[in-house]
Amino acid sequence: MSEPGRIPVPLRLCRGCRRFVRIENELCDFCGEDLAALEAAHAANVAEIRDVTEALRAAIDEARAGGA
Asked: Which top-level group of life is the source organism from (predicted)?
């Protein structure tokens, strides 16, 4: 635990090993991966999941409308 009155070090999550590292790091201290590249890949995966989810919802809505 940090000392009272001290500001904690800003951290960010490594998307490779799921550990927290200092926000200014370019590479993860634990797995050595490029943090910006991992974050970009994660963002792309999230966007793809959102697109697929929207398409699935639209298909379900269409199926419901056709079956009514």
From this structure: Bacteria
